[in-house]
Amino acid sequence: MKTRILQLTAALLLGGALAGCSTVGGSFYTASYSSVSDAGYTIPAIPREKIPAQFRRQIVNYQTNEKPGTIIVDTGTKFLYYVMPNGKAMRYGIGVGREGFGWSGTARIAMKREWPTWTPPAAMIKRQPELAKYRTGMQPGLRNPLGARALYLFNKGGDTGYRIHGTPEWWSIGKSMSSGCIRLMNQDIIDLYDRAEKGAKVIVI
C-alpha cells in the first residue's frame, strides 16, 4: 500500500512539473518568460513568440563525458548546456563575444552574485570614454549590463575577466555582440544561477 501511494505521489509530482511545459521535437520547453519579481525589482516579460524556438530554455538530449553540474558553452551554435544526469542537459540560448572579443578554454565558477554591480574594465573605458562615469561601478538594476545574476569565471591564472550573466537586451540572444562575456536572458540566468554550484567546471568551445 505504501509503495502504491509513493508511486501515485511521484506520478502527480511529475505531472505537475510537466504541466507547464510543451513537448516539441523531443525537447521540453520550460520557460514562459513572464514577468518576474525578484529582490525588489520587476523583470519585464519577454514576448516569447519573438524568441526563436531554439533559443528558449529547454531540456534536450545531450551526450558528454563531463559530469552533471558542468556548464558547456558552444559559442558557434549560441547555446549553453547545463549538464544533467541520464544524457540530458538544460539548454539556454546565449549571446557571445563579437569578432575580436571571443574566447575559449576551461574555467570554474569562483563567485556568484545576485543583482551584481558592473564595473567596466579600463580597456573598455578607453574604447568608450562615456563609460568613465562607471569607473567605480554601476549600481545594480534593470539597466545594468550584468542583469539579474552573474557567474564569475576564474582559471589557474585567476580572474579571467569573463562572466556568464543576464542581460535586459533579450533580442541580443543568438548574436555575437558582447565584449566576450556570455549573456542570457534575465529569466534564464536566474534559472541557471539556481542550478549552478560555486566551483563548477565551465568549458567554452
TrEMBL record:
Pathway: Cell wall biogenesis; peptidoglycan biosynthesis. GO terms for molecular function: glycosyltransferase activity; peptidoglycan L,D-transpeptidase activity. Gene3D superfamilies: L,D-transpeptidase catalytic domain-like (2.40.440.10). Residues 69-205 form the L,D-TPase catalytic domain. Pfam families: YkuD. It comes from the Bacteria. Residues 1-19 form the signal peptide. Keywords: Cell shape, Cell wall biogenesis/degradation, Glycosyltransferase, Hydrolase, Peptidoglycan synthesis, Signal, Transferase. The active site is at 165 (proton donor/acceptor), 181 (nucleophile). GO terms for cellular component: extracellular region. CDD domains: YkuD_like. GO terms for biological process: cell wall organization; peptidoglycan-protein cross-linking; regulation of cell shape. The keyword Transmembrane helix does not apply. Belongs to the YkuD family. This is L,D-transpeptidase.
